[in-house]
Amino acid sequence: MHVELKEIRKYFGEVKANDNISVSLEPGKIYGLLGENGAGKSTLMKILSGYQPQDSGEILLDHKAVDFPSPAAALGAGLGMLYQDPLDIPPFSIIDNYLLGRDNRLSLDYRTVIAEMNEIITRYGFEADIHAHIDTLSLGERQQLELVRLLAGGAQVFILDEPTTGISVEQKDVLFSSMRKLAHEEGKTIILVSHKLDEVQELCDHAFVLRRGKLVGQSTIPCPNEKLVEMMFGQVPTRRERLPFDLGNPALELINVNISTYRLNVSNINLQIFAGEVIGLAGLEGSGQGILLRTIAGLIQPESGQVVVSGQDLTKSSYHKSRNFGVAYCAAGRLEEGLVSKLSLTEHMLLAEPTHTFMIDWPAARERTNSRIEQYQVVGQPESTADQLSGGNQQRLLFALLNPGLKVILLEHPTRGLDVRSMDWIWEQMYARREDGTALVFMSADLDEILERSDRIAVFSGGVMSRVVNASEVSVDQLGHMIGGQA
Ligand SMILES: Nc1ncnc2c1ncn2[C@@H]1O[C@H](COP(=O)(O)OP(=O)(O)OP(=O)(O)O)[C@@H](O)[C@H]1O
Ligand SMILES: [Mg+2]
Questions:
Q1: Atom of ligand 1 nearest to the CA of 213
Q2: What confidence score (pLDDT) does residue 357 get?
């Protein structure tokens, strides 16, 4: 299907999220949509998929003007979108969810539906278990399910907004090969919104670049990364060297920690982490790293063993007690666990503060919020609600909510959804906290990030911490083999 966007404008108050954008997309091709955080990518794609209306401008499908009152109407016309953050996921089984998405054919019986879904799952090499409940699925599995729904709904155009953040390498490979098949064999049109230039190079045929709401460039792919980066930021961002740091006393000690959850048992974790140290947890998704972080945060109680922070035993502490003692946890699911979509930035700030007064001094709180917003360069106002921020700015907000003087910071996929410049900047902010003696423990699906940012790396597979290595002594390939469980 041929897709054309003509002079699309969308303003949010003063913010020109989309400022006169025109692009034309051919069937059978995969397009990359690039741009720094807040550039207007999601806004444009939400307009194309019927999620929100443009202020002015036209959408043409096969050269005919169309107007969608809802995402369902857009899907009816062949446009399907995978959103940056999975929207509300009701706790139904996959099959119910699938039926919900197809209420025009409610008379379908279960057996037909199962056959239809299985056919699609097999054709594209997906692995989602259709009898599972949605809330037990990983992000990557939910995404596959969502694709199945779009495929069954007759989508001709697939819009993927940062689809590889938070999914495993295997799931990414499955996703990419299904996208290639859809475009190059079946003539569908694909749009990939991404910050990962290597992925754009790997998958796309052509890329568009947005900056501050405007289309500032485009190129066929392959194209040198530097050229894309220059279009994205207007210049090639410079990187500062990471300075060596003298580690202090033990900040966090894990002694014979055993954790048992319904999904996985994590056994016999022994690790001493020093003040100022950065530890990366490497492993495939669901290998135990996330469970360990939640245990240190006090969200899960270990079955046995000890969690000691700055000499204090916090093994049986609640999340709130650990938090007040200086253990901060940043969850991966920004709008599910970390932030509350309809609360303002000031309200988030108040919730994150360790002590509360009986009466809230709102003007003062607003002032504090403002200075944090400035420090963390969050594009938004104290009154903005979390869901009004772009994905990358939501991520910045999570960091802005971290109080000073923490003992341990636990980060799940800390730079998920950030552009390269923001990523470097966030890490600089985190390194600056080493001066406070803060130890950092983070997990990431990005092996390059783990290698580059950690002092030491703890490798996880199947709930076992198989080894701890110095980051300077391993290569990406070696690390890849280690997390795959090989020597
Ligand atoms: N519902 C909204 N209300 C107010 N402002 C909004 C809303 N949605 C988006 N914006 C603003 O529009 C601008 C563009 O946001 P958009 O989400 O399109 O960026 P993006 O390119 O997807 O960024 P990211 O890479 O961070 O996801 C941002 O400044 C954002 O704060
Ligand atoms: Mg976005």
A1: 14
A2: 75
